[in-house]
Design a protein that fits this description.
Elements: H1 13-25, H2 32-43, H3 47-59, E1 63-66, E2 69-72, H4 77-99, E3 104-107, E4 110-113, H5 125-131, E5 135-137, E6 145-147, H6 152-166, H7 172-200, E7 211-212, E8 224-226, E9 237-244, H8 254-263, E10 267-273, E11 285-288, H9 290-295
Parallel strand pairs: 9-10
Antiparallel strand pairs: 1-2, 3-4, 4-6, 5-6, 7-8, 8-9, 10-11
Helix pairs in contact: 1-2, 2-3, 4-6
Length: 316
């Protein structure tokens, strides 16, 4: 597929129409190099910009190539201008809808483009926005280009499409279902680990006190209370269970982090791969002393990002 080379730029509108005229007048087609030479003689056009513009015109379906010879798909010069303008507007709008519409904003009643914020490759499309009347400059060096009324809907549609892509809409019912499933997955992982913990301490005299505390106290900061060894008689082993499927990822709440800090080495993060719980040889990842291991230690193999921040008003 022919594409414009980044940085080479494009011909002006007048040069582009002249190029199309040269190609259309060649009855049996013309090579791109010959067309570039002829245009250079008539309009002092750059060879690089001519070849770049040919690639763009082919992408716009105005030119066809067969056996290295170019021919026009339409012969009306007036139609060329309007068809190029429509294609340029569509291309720019598609880029914004896909890669970001931040270049668009309203100024009074005008829809304007900031050309420096246009997404996509540097292939000269900015020039053609002005050259073919899709937008007009407000001053020679202004970063505010006013979109022509004919193309206003296309660019507003691009902003709408970009916003729709970024929005993660979910119904209340779907959200409830998702949260219910997450809670169910968490309970399954906790019960799985509880069984393993009781198996580890099978001869402990207080085995029944190895339990899921999360059932009774959701704010405890850990899920399972246990004993470090079979000789310990006071709870000194606190397990917070985090399960995942696919990528190793979990959420650690502020309360859980503070609990990990206060309990020190007695606090253990148990990271369970739900896809492997049925494998008898599987061992979950356990991070003991999780606060020191994850919060106070750098290069620990985890990327930790804050999820929410508490904002409290300061009384005057």
């Amino acid at each position: 597929m022919n594409v414009a080379r980044q940085g080479d730029g494009l011909l002006s509108a007048g040069q582009t129409i002249a190029l199309l005229g040269i190609i259309s007048q060649a009855g049996n087609g013309i090579t791109a190099e010959r067309a570039a030479r002829d245009l250079s003689v008539r309009r002092a056009a750059s060879h690089a910009k001519t070849h770049n513009s040919i690639a763009m015109l082919m992408a716009a379906d105005l030119l066809a190539r067969e056996d290295d010879r170019l021919s026009c798909r339409a012969s009306d010069g007036g139609d060329w201008r309007s068809r190029i303008a429509e294609w340029v507007a569509r291309q720019a709008a598609e880029r914004m809808a896909r890669d970001g519409a931040h270049a668009l904003q309203m100024h009074e009643d005008d829809l304007v483009i900031d050309p420096m914020r246009l997404p996509g490759p540097v292939d000269g499309l900015r020039l053609w926005l002005i050259e073919f009347g899709v937008a007009s400059r407000v001053g020679s060096s202004s970063r505010r280009w006013v979109v022509a009324g004919t193309y206003r809907a296309a660019f507003l549609g691009a902003a709408r499409a970009w916003n729709d892509r970024r929005r993660r809409s979910i119904s209340q019912e779907a959200l409830k279902d998702r949260l219910d499933q997450q809670a169910k997955d968490g309970e399954i992982a906790e019960e799985w680990l509880l069984e393993r913990e009781r198996a580890r301490l099978s001869t402990h005299p207080l085995i029944q006190q190895v339990a899921r505390i999360s059932i009774e106290d959701a704010g405890a900061g850990y899920d399972i209370i246990s004993f470090s060894t079979e000789t310990a008689l006071v709870h000194d082993h606190f397990l917070e269970v985090k399960s995942f499927r696919g990528r190793r990822r979990f959420f650690w709440t502020r309360n859980e982090i503070e609990t990990a800090r206060s309990l020190g080495e007695a606090y253990h993060l148990c990271i369970v791969d739900r896809d492997r719980m049925g494998d008898a040889s599987y061992r979950p990842e356990v991070i003991s002393g999780a606060y020191a291991a994850l919060i106070e230690t750098q290069d620990n193999g985890w990327s930790i990002s804050p999820g929410t921040f508490e904002c409290v008003a300061i009384d005057a």
